[in-house]
């Protein structure tokens, strides 16, 4: 971003952001916020967004307010002041409205577009809070001119910063790296953890937080509760172990701020190929014995979507828990396949999802139900449909190589580091201090090599499958 665009005189963001309009009027930079409001309202007036009408009898006037934001750059510098006019929906009652849907973009969609652009060798361009990708400058200018007829747009050049994410494009090698180093730095400064000793894992091995860690009512330290709520939101009764767990998360961020997701173009055999991992931690929540679902979806060797969620029901077996996880991953894959198809990039083979539970895989392939599995028949038929329809296929992978494990449970440091590096497509990284202060280098073979190895191990499994359609389709993909 050009230096001339940087707003001078403003310090780092988080503590300096105004909340109310009256706050902006009392600041030394009030003129900048007034200009931001005018910039927000000008296109609304010019395009006829608003019209003045008489208030109908019995109708209730709904006020509006401005929300303010300091837009920052890759180095924490303030780029501009932003104001957004919002209706006070919080003042409405259920009887006063019937529709609350507001379309918003999933961040995974942004990652999907970036990965596609990397594979196609396109330049990512920042246009008025949106992303465009092109390899033809003349066509891009024509496209921008057409949009400008209806919208006021600002072409901000090559994308290097978007929604707090640093974007480093390497067009020569068809690679793009995303990271949030500045965001992590701001978070650590906000909570007084800038000098924290880095650690390599989010939690210590064999750590399980339960309600038993909560102190008796009225006995909690008020300062502890205040600090905990500042970091993770409201928690009715956090104990010291919860606070220590949160501090460790911040220490992990301190040691991993330089890491990011790398997307790189793949050979023709794996071009725009979706694949991923799915796993579950059976009865992982001690208080409820609910299991944990973890899955990650990959494209161009980098993660574009991931989840770590508590399952809504109590699974009676590890296979059932794995089934719920695989089904959730299948829903995610079906969504991305639909989007890619609409973009003219159809997936010509099932999306490979690596699973480490044999019963789950067998149930997805074979129409067999018995007393131990009939209570999950809806999930069984859903997952089996995804496999039969060629939307996804489950392949066996060893537990030690199950990358989604990092999203379901606390792992030993070497395993966690290995899995997280694979999700981010990090083949090697600078040395990072570990919990003991020692320095270690993280080395990981390329994600494409891992995929080839896993596929080679499963070639015989596919050949012996009784489902010829499933076997032939995936076999062609592996060949």
Question: What does this protein structure show overall?
Answer:
36% of the residues lie in helices and 20% in strands. It is built from 13 helices and 16 strands. It has helices at 21-25, 30-46, 107-120, 137-148, 181-190, 222-232, 240-256, 318-342, 358-365, 377-388, 413-424, 447-463, 468-478; strands spanning 64-72, 78-87, 123-127, 130-134, 155-158, 161-162, 165-170, 175-179, 260-264, 275-281, 292-299, 302-310, 351-355, 392-396, 428-433, 439-443. Strands 12-11-10-13-14 form a five-stranded mixed β-sheet, sandwiched between helices. A four-stranded antiparallel β-sheet has the order 6-7-8-9. Strand 3 (123-127) and strand 4 (130-134) form a beta hairpin. Helix 5 runs antiparallel to helix 7.
What are the salient characteristics of this protein?
alpha+beta, globular, single chain, 5-stranded mixed beta sheet, 4-stranded antiparallel beta sheet
Strand order of the largest sheet: 12-11-10-13-14
Mean pLDDT: 79
Poorly predicted spans: 1-15, 429-451, 457-479
Category from helices, strands and their pairing: alpha+beta
End-to-end gap? 45 Å
Tally the beta strands: 16
Largest beta-sheet characterization: 5 strands, mixed
Radius of gyration (CA) equals 25 Å
Summarize the helix and strand pattern as letters: HHEEHEEHEEEEHHHEEEEHEHHEHEEHH
Helix fraction bin: 25-40%
């Amino acid at each position: 971003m050009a230096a001339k665009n940087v707003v001078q005189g403003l310090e780092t963001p988080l503590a300096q952001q105004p909340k109310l309009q009256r706050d902006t009027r009392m600041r030394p930079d009030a003129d900048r916020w007034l200009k931001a409001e005018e910039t927000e309202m000008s296109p609304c007036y010019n395009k006829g967004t608003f019209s003045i009408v008489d208030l109908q009898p019995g109708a209730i006037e709904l006020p509006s307010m401005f929300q303010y934001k300091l837009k920052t750059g890759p180095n924490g510098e303030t780029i501009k002041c932003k104001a957004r006019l919002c209706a006070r929906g919080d003042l409405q009652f259920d009887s006063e409205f019937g529709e609350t849907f507001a379309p918003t973009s999933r961040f995974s969609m942004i990652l999907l577009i970036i990965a596609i652009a990397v594979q196609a060798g396109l330049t990512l361009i920042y246009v008025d809070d949106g992303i465009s990708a092109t390899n033809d400058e003349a066509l891009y200018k024509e496209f921008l001119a057409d949009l400008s007829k209806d919208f006021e747009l600002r072409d901000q050049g090559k994308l290097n910063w978007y929604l707090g994410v640093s974007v480093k494009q390497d067009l020569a090698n068809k690679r793009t790296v995303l990271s949030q180093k500045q965001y992590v730095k701001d978070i650590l400064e906000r909570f007084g953890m800038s000098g924290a000793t880095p650690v390599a894992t989010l939690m210590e091995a064999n750590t399980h937080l339960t309600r038993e860690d909560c102190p008796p009512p009225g006995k909690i330290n008020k300062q502890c509760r205040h600090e905990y709520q500042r970091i993770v939101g409201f928690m009715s009764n956090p104990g010291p172990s919860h606070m220590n767990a949160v501090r460790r998360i911040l220490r992990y961020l301190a040691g991993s701020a330089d890491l990011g997701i790398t997307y790189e173009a793949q050979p023709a055999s794996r071009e725009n190929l979706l694949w991923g991992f799915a796993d579950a931690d059976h009865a992982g929540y001690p208080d409820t014995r609910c299991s944990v679902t973890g899955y990650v979806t990959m494209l161009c060797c980098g993660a574009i979507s991931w989840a770590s969620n508590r399952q809504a029901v109590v699974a009676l077996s590890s296979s059932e828990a794995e089934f719920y996880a695989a089904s959730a991953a299948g829903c995610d894959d079906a969504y991305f396949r639909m989007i890619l198809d609409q973009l003219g990039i159809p997936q010509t083979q099932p999306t490979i999802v690596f699973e480490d539970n044999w019963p789950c895989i067998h149930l997805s392939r074979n129409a067999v139900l018995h007393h131990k599995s009939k209570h999950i028949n809806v999930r069984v038929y859903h997952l089996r449909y995804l496999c039969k329809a060629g939307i996804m296929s489950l392949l066996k992978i060893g537990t030690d190589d199950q990358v989604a494990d990092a999203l379901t449970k606390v792992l030993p440091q070497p395993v966690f580091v290995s899995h997280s590096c694979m999700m981010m497509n990090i083949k090697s990284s600078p040395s990072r201090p570990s919990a003991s202060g020692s320095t270690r280098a993280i080395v990981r073979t390329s994600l494409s090599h891992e995929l080839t190895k896993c596929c080679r191990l499963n070639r015989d499994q596919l050949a012996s499958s009784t489902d010829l359609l499933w076997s032939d389709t995936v076999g062609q993909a592996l060949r």
